[in-house]
Records
---
Amino acid sequence: MVRYPKRVIFPKGNQRKFLEKVKNNLGLTIKEVAGVAGVHERTLTDWKREKLSMSLPALKKLCQKANISLPKKIEIRNPFWAAKFSASAGGMAVYKKYGNVGGDPAYRKRKWFEWWEKEGRYREDLITARIQPLQEPGVSTELAEFIGILLGDGGITSSQVTVSLNRVDDRDYLSYLRILIQDLFKLNPSVKEREKEGVINLIVSRTELVRFLVKMGLQVGNKVKHQVDVPCWIKESEAFTKSCLRGLFDTDGCFYVDRHHWRDKLYCNAGMDFTNRSLPLVKFFKVNLTKLGFHLTQTGKFRVRLRREGEIVSYFRKVGSSNPKHVKKFRRYLQRCYGEDIHKIVSGLPEKQITNQEFL
């Protein structure tokens, strides 16, 4: 059975006359003629009114049953032959009644070009897309930090790389990440806020970037399910390891201050927690900070903690932080505890940390 049969076009008035002839020759009712044609009674009524054109298979059935030859003055056309004319007529009717539909066409054109420059030109799934070659950076401390960020709050699909941050607390950190991605790959990531979830996403839609990151040791898909680990080339270098630790803690770490009273006196104690659902990452964080002389406590299957104040200060000296959220909390804590003596405590921090993170 043909799903969309060809149509028969009669001269005006002849389709009605043909059906009347079939009905009279067979001595049947309209409903019975419809049964012979294999259509609903309402369809046959529309054919008789010449509201719709007949199908070619129905015409042949009726001719065979009524023992009459096929009409000569007919035209056989493909199904949906009238669609483009109907669409055009409908479009003109809407235009005459409402004018331009969809708002100002100049505004739509401008917004399309903005989207094209930011995202569309990089998408391989678009026929007209022109993929620019990806700048593949060599191994570096910056790339190691970026990989630590992705292992913390990042996500990788087959065509997209995303970093999800807190839309309030990490907004300043977002600016740092955008510059880092631009410096590494010469790409401009897009930013999308999910206000209800309290999340802001930094997104790069480039298949070539995904391929590069996989080549560098990362995996596409669910990080917890895969129980991802830090790439070997990072583990083989102390400098790369420190940078990766910084990226991990800046995304999945937390600097906090415990406050408690004892005999009417307020005591404050600093703490640092790192939490991740991938056990190899928790192990990497604990083992490598231990190698650097830190004493961490395993407080859960997925969490390690640093509580010695001197070692927390040392962490910011040796590893540092690129997330202003952590840096500001750390600085406020030292100022409350030591006042102007903060200058002595933070002296010796790397110049980059002092300048970029405004410790002084």
Note: Confidence is low (pLDDT under 50) at residues 347-360.
---
Amino acid sequence: MSMNAAMRRPSLDGALIGWDVGGAHLKAARIEPDDRLSGVWLEPCPLWRSLDQLRQAIDRIEAAMPANGACAHAVTMTGEMVDLFATRQAGVQALAAFLDERLGAGRVYFYAGTHGWLDVSQARQHAEWVASANWHATAHLISTCVSEALLIDIGSTTTDLIPIRNGAVATSSSSDRERLSAGELVYTGVVRTPVMALASEAPVAGHFTPLMAEHFATSSDVYRILGLLPDKADLHDTADGGAKTQAASRARLARMVGRDAAELSDQAWADLAAWFAEAQMARIGRAARQVLSRELLAATAPVIIAGVGGFLGPRLAARLGRPVINFSQILTPHAHPDMIDECAPAVAVGRLLAAHRPPRNLHAPADTPCG
């Protein structure tokens, strides 16, 4: 099913918006009629609470955009898996219906990976094609620009590792179930991952101490203590609802090992945070080795980094012995300086849909998605 055959096409001559509807965040990217990427937005959206959270997040993003509305919307999602919905199919169906109504009936295209673009009726009928396809959008866009690479998108909650070979997305996985087994989806991120999911024990004051199986601290505390966490990455409440300071993060981390922060020095807690960061890096690196053992990429093929955890990119690429490129670097000359890497799937679906615009004159070919 393709863009040309799958659905009636509204005009793509005007501006359009790419949306990535996650379970915890909403991301958007606006593409102007001249293919310029004019803005990228990231908003908290605790979708597990209600669809009204999504409505409010859309309202906030639209309020920040130029007054003239978009002619079309490109949507990808992972939010269907939150426990607001009884099943993932029900989640896609509910989100597709909501977005078509909220953004404009007949103006919304749903990204379905290798199946192309679907209207709301088709998206609800083929929910399995639409569910959690945002990783494919990012990889698909990159494959139009780079012939061989390993995409690593490190988000707040998960990490995607997608090989690109011969200018194509090189994976046979289509579902989260398959991607988990293939090492292409790792449920670890730099903000929302509970510390108890990073390791079972840790070195504290000369002893390996088992961790408490409690939601006392998250990976955001680890990277805040280390001074690495960007403010724009951490948009949700902390594990205890407390402050987002290094001192508060040390207190939360100390609870994980049955202590109070005052019992050890700030340096000791920084060392413990570095232990957990290393454990997370090792897990992502292990998955990368698994993927690379299956898809033998040239030694010069780069790691392309995206996501709010992009600050880990250089260290990870060095471990793999590969050059590193940020996702935003392949979008020049149309790159917008802020938030591209953090909102890669939203940018990707927007640019992929924009590539279906007719040429601006009879002698010019249609733009490639990567600009």
Note: The longest strand covers residues 37-44.
---
Amino acid sequence: MAKVFITGVAGFLGSHLADALLAAGHEVVGNDNLIGGYLDNVPDDVDFHQVDCGYLNTMMKLMQGVDVVVHTACTAYEGLSVFAPHLVCQNTYQITATAVTAAIANGVRRFVYCSSMARYGAQDRVPFTEDMAPRPQDPYGISKYAAELLLRNLSETHGMEYVITVPHNIIGPRQKYDDPYRNVASIMINLMLHGRQPIIYGDGEQKRCFSFVQDCIYCLERAAFADNLAGEVINIGPDEEFVTINELAHIIADLLDFDLAPVFMPGRPQEVKLASCSASKARRLLDYKTTVPLKQGLQSIIDYIREKGPKKFRYHLSLEIHNQLTPRTWSEKLF
């Protein structure tokens, strides 16, 4: 059994991964600054430290004796990054530099980095495959890809194994649903459970595939421990059920028996119209399978939010750039 360090362990993805690793008998240590997660997400048996990834000396101490690092921590705010680039870049690129440095200094065997579909930007075709040249078009995507380059450079220099995973549009229980800046499915469900209409940016014809969290977790476990994966970049998530945001709203409304009349707002700058990732490489290397279809995954979020209770949206992050492009949903706190 291994000692695994999870950054962002109070977050949606990190906490589910911690559950799986503990169930497999591994020792799990983790940290989180709680910007994007909930404290009650953290499993009881995790050696948890409420600290930011940016503190190098602390991260150096926490990673002593660690075999594998899975770096899920990130302010994963693609749209917001256009208007809060300092916050998002600092908590995407810089914290990765800190985590990688601490891992190498402590002799960590393998570092698994959770990147983002934002690395691809707008490509000439979908689904995105790992051999495509990344063309990120917002500060978040730029930071994610820059962090990949840094990880590759330092790992190859110092002899640490690394695997770059690209989970995309993950949904499921524990996702932060009172966050007005991200998680479109959870935002829509929270609004509808309040009896409010969802807000859709642009014409709503942006298309995405959505990944249920449990279909990503076993892939991350294999990325952490399987042989012959060092140096690989692997998309994680489905390439089926490619739906528009309008279709997503209708599916959620049907599940809730909600009388849908969406409110349309101007499109957000730099948003990619068509974005989905091929799962072919994950099927080959990680035995990826889509076991939870979209409606079932959305129903699990509905059940989770109903159990927890719908929440008022918290504008917990500050906008750094205010101009005519800034979405009114954020500047006027319309959610």
Note: The mean pLDDT is 97.
